[in-house]
Fold this protein.
Amino acid sequence: MKLAVVLLLIGFARASAQSLTGTVIDAMGAVIPGTRITLTLSGEERETKAGNDGSFVFSGLGAGQYRITANAAGFSPYTGSIRIGEGEDVHFPTMMLELTGPCHSPVNPMVPRYRVDKILGKSAQIDGIVVPPRQVDVELKTIADHGVSSERATTDRHGRFRFSDVTPGRHRLYIEPAPGFLAVNPMDIISHPGELLVIEPVRLGRPPPPGPIIGVCE
Protein backbone atom coordinates (compact mmCIF):
# COMPACT_ATOMS: atom_id res chain seq x y z
CA MET A 1 0.00 0.00 0.00
CA LYS A 2 2.78 2.44 0.95
CA LEU A 3 4.64 1.60 -2.26
CA ALA A 4 1.53 2.33 -4.32
CA VAL A 5 1.11 5.73 -2.62
CA VAL A 6 4.78 6.61 -3.23
CA LEU A 7 4.52 5.65 -6.89
CA LEU A 8 1.33 7.67 -7.22
CA LEU A 9 3.00 10.74 -5.72
CA ILE A 10 6.01 10.38 -8.00
CA GLY A 11 3.76 10.08 -11.02
CA PHE A 12 1.78 13.15 -9.96
CA ALA A 13 4.98 15.19 -9.46
CA ARG A 14 6.21 14.28 -12.92
CA ALA A 15 2.86 15.08 -14.48
CA SER A 16 2.66 18.47 -12.76
CA ALA A 17 6.27 19.56 -13.47
CA GLN A 18 6.56 22.53 -15.81
CA SER A 19 9.35 23.86 -18.04
CA LEU A 20 10.56 27.27 -19.20
CA THR A 21 12.60 28.02 -22.33
CA GLY A 22 13.90 31.23 -23.84
CA THR A 23 16.65 33.02 -25.77
CA VAL A 24 18.99 35.92 -24.92
CA ILE A 25 20.09 38.44 -27.58
CA ASP A 26 21.73 41.86 -27.82
CA ALA A 27 20.27 45.02 -29.38
CA MET A 28 21.51 43.92 -32.83
CA GLY A 29 19.78 40.55 -32.57
CA ALA A 30 22.95 38.50 -31.96
CA VAL A 31 22.70 35.75 -29.33
CA ILE A 32 24.68 36.04 -26.07
CA PRO A 33 26.10 32.61 -25.12
CA GLY A 34 26.96 31.99 -21.49
CA THR A 35 24.41 34.43 -20.08
CA ARG A 36 23.57 33.47 -16.49
CA ILE A 37 19.81 33.05 -16.06
CA THR A 38 18.32 32.93 -12.58
CA LEU A 39 14.74 32.00 -11.61
CA THR A 40 13.47 32.94 -8.15
CA LEU A 41 10.27 31.71 -6.50
CA SER A 42 9.50 32.30 -2.81
CA GLY A 43 13.17 32.98 -2.06
CA GLU A 44 14.42 29.80 -3.75
CA GLU A 45 16.71 30.19 -6.76
CA ARG A 46 17.52 28.03 -9.76
CA GLU A 47 20.26 28.95 -12.20
CA THR A 48 21.37 27.94 -15.68
CA LYS A 49 23.45 29.36 -18.53
CA ALA A 50 22.50 30.13 -22.12
CA GLY A 51 24.02 27.77 -24.68
CA ASN A 52 26.00 28.66 -27.80
CA ASP A 53 22.75 29.53 -29.58
CA GLY A 54 21.67 31.86 -26.74
CA SER A 55 18.89 29.52 -25.61
CA PHE A 56 18.22 28.24 -22.10
CA VAL A 57 15.95 25.64 -20.49
CA PHE A 58 14.56 25.12 -17.00
CA SER A 59 12.72 21.85 -16.40
CA GLY A 60 10.92 20.32 -13.45
CA LEU A 61 9.50 23.67 -12.30
CA GLY A 62 6.59 24.13 -9.95
CA ALA A 63 3.72 26.44 -10.84
CA GLY A 64 3.90 30.05 -9.65
CA GLN A 65 4.99 33.63 -10.38
CA TYR A 66 8.75 33.65 -10.99
CA ARG A 67 11.27 36.48 -11.04
CA ILE A 68 13.73 35.99 -13.88
CA THR A 69 17.10 37.75 -14.25
CA ALA A 70 19.80 37.58 -16.92
CA ASN A 71 23.42 38.65 -16.42
CA ALA A 72 26.25 38.70 -18.97
CA ALA A 73 29.65 40.39 -18.88
CA GLY A 74 29.58 43.73 -20.71
CA PHE A 75 25.77 44.00 -20.62
CA SER A 76 23.33 45.62 -18.22
CA PRO A 77 21.23 43.09 -16.24
CA TYR A 78 17.74 42.11 -17.33
CA THR A 79 14.96 41.60 -14.79
CA GLY A 80 11.43 40.44 -15.50
CA SER A 81 8.69 38.13 -14.30
CA ILE A 82 6.83 35.16 -15.71
CA ARG A 83 3.84 33.19 -14.47
CA ILE A 84 3.89 29.43 -15.02
CA GLY A 85 0.58 27.66 -14.65
CA GLU A 86 -0.04 24.06 -13.63
CA GLY A 87 0.92 21.74 -16.48
CA GLU A 88 2.29 24.57 -18.67
CA ASP A 89 5.47 24.52 -20.73
CA VAL A 90 6.23 28.21 -21.22
CA HIS A 91 8.45 29.93 -23.78
CA PHE A 92 9.66 33.26 -22.36
CA PRO A 93 9.70 36.22 -24.82
CA THR A 94 13.19 36.82 -26.18
CA MET A 95 15.30 38.79 -23.66
CA MET A 96 17.37 41.65 -25.08
CA LEU A 97 20.37 42.93 -23.09
CA GLU A 98 21.91 46.36 -23.57
CA LEU A 99 25.65 46.99 -23.78
CA THR A 100 27.35 48.73 -20.87
CA GLY A 101 30.95 49.61 -20.06
CA PRO A 102 33.32 52.60 -19.90
CA CYS A 103 31.60 54.31 -22.81
CA HIS A 104 28.11 52.91 -22.22
CA SER A 105 25.94 53.94 -19.30
CA PRO A 106 23.69 51.18 -17.93
CA VAL A 107 20.35 51.38 -19.70
CA ASN A 108 17.27 50.42 -17.71
CA PRO A 109 14.25 50.09 -19.99
CA MET A 110 11.13 51.61 -18.49
CA VAL A 111 7.53 50.52 -18.92
CA PRO A 112 5.54 53.53 -20.16
CA ARG A 113 1.95 54.24 -19.26
CA TYR A 114 -0.44 54.13 -22.16
CA ARG A 115 -4.12 54.09 -23.00
CA VAL A 116 -5.42 51.06 -24.88
CA ASP A 117 -8.11 51.45 -27.54
CA LYS A 118 -9.39 49.02 -30.15
CA ILE A 119 -8.73 49.10 -33.88
CA LEU A 120 -9.86 46.86 -36.72
CA GLY A 121 -7.63 44.04 -37.92
CA LYS A 122 -5.06 41.71 -36.42
CA SER A 123 -2.15 44.18 -36.28
CA ALA A 124 -1.46 46.83 -33.64
CA GLN A 125 -0.76 50.56 -33.70
CA ILE A 126 1.46 52.62 -31.39
CA ASP A 127 1.06 56.40 -31.06
CA GLY A 128 3.07 58.82 -28.95
CA ILE A 129 4.30 62.38 -28.49
CA VAL A 130 7.43 64.03 -27.12
CA VAL A 131 7.26 67.25 -25.09
CA PRO A 132 8.39 69.90 -25.57
CA PRO A 133 7.74 69.26 -29.27
CA ARG A 134 10.94 68.41 -31.13
CA GLN A 135 11.64 66.65 -34.40
CA VAL A 136 13.50 63.46 -33.43
CA ASP A 137 13.92 59.97 -34.81
CA VAL A 138 12.03 57.14 -33.13
CA GLU A 139 12.82 53.44 -33.56
CA LEU A 140 10.55 50.51 -32.72
CA LYS A 141 12.14 47.07 -32.40
CA THR A 142 9.85 44.05 -32.37
CA ILE A 143 11.34 41.04 -30.59
CA ALA A 144 10.23 37.62 -31.80
CA ASP A 145 11.50 34.03 -31.70
CA HIS A 146 13.01 34.40 -35.18
CA GLY A 147 14.94 37.56 -34.26
CA VAL A 148 14.49 41.33 -34.10
CA SER A 149 12.80 43.53 -36.70
CA SER A 150 13.07 47.30 -36.69
CA GLU A 151 11.17 50.25 -38.14
CA ARG A 152 11.77 53.98 -37.80
CA ALA A 153 9.67 57.13 -37.77
CA THR A 154 10.26 60.87 -37.30
CA THR A 155 8.12 63.04 -35.07
CA ASP A 156 6.15 65.84 -36.73
CA ARG A 157 6.37 69.51 -35.74
CA HIS A 158 4.00 68.80 -32.85
CA GLY A 159 6.28 66.03 -31.54
CA ARG A 160 3.88 63.25 -32.52
CA PHE A 161 4.83 59.86 -33.95
CA ARG A 162 2.95 56.76 -35.10
CA PHE A 163 3.73 53.15 -35.95
CA SER A 164 0.95 51.46 -37.94
CA ASP A 165 0.48 47.79 -38.90
CA VAL A 166 2.71 46.68 -36.03
CA THR A 167 3.15 42.94 -35.53
CA PRO A 168 1.68 42.23 -32.06
CA GLY A 169 4.15 41.09 -29.44
CA ARG A 170 6.98 42.51 -27.36
CA HIS A 171 8.62 45.76 -28.47
CA ARG A 172 11.31 48.17 -27.39
CA LEU A 173 10.91 51.84 -28.28
CA TYR A 174 13.95 54.10 -28.69
CA ILE A 175 13.80 57.90 -28.95
CA GLU A 176 16.92 59.58 -30.31
CA PRO A 177 18.32 62.38 -28.12
CA ALA A 178 17.17 65.84 -29.17
CA PRO A 179 19.87 68.56 -29.32
CA GLY A 180 20.19 70.19 -25.90
CA PHE A 181 18.18 67.46 -24.13
CA LEU A 182 19.03 64.32 -22.17
CA ALA A 183 18.73 60.87 -23.72
CA VAL A 184 15.47 59.01 -23.08
CA ASN A 185 15.59 55.49 -21.68
CA PRO A 186 14.17 52.84 -24.03
CA MET A 187 10.63 51.69 -23.31
CA ASP A 188 9.34 48.11 -23.16
CA ILE A 189 5.88 47.69 -24.70
CA ILE A 190 3.65 44.67 -25.18
CA SER A 191 0.91 44.84 -27.83
CA HIS A 192 -1.91 42.50 -28.78
CA PRO A 193 -3.90 42.08 -32.01
CA GLY A 194 -6.36 44.89 -32.66
CA GLU A 195 -4.89 47.26 -30.07
CA LEU A 196 -4.12 50.98 -30.36
CA LEU A 197 -1.58 51.95 -27.70
CA VAL A 198 -1.43 55.68 -26.99
CA ILE A 199 1.68 56.33 -24.92
CA GLU A 200 1.56 59.12 -22.35
CA PRO A 201 3.71 62.15 -23.34
CA VAL A 202 7.44 61.46 -23.25
CA ARG A 203 9.07 64.41 -21.49
CA LEU A 204 12.52 65.50 -22.62
CA GLY A 205 14.76 66.60 -19.76
CA ARG A 206 17.42 69.31 -19.82
CA PRO A 207 20.99 68.36 -18.81
CA PRO A 208 22.52 69.80 -15.63
CA PRO A 209 25.07 72.64 -15.88
CA PRO A 210 28.43 71.40 -17.20
CA GLY A 211 30.94 70.24 -14.61
CA PRO A 212 34.56 69.10 -14.72
CA ILE A 213 35.45 66.58 -17.42
CA ILE A 214 36.25 63.23 -15.79
CA GLY A 215 37.05 61.15 -18.84
CA VAL A 216 36.64 60.96 -22.59
CA CYS A 217 35.25 58.09 -24.65
CA GLU A 218 36.64 57.68 -28.12
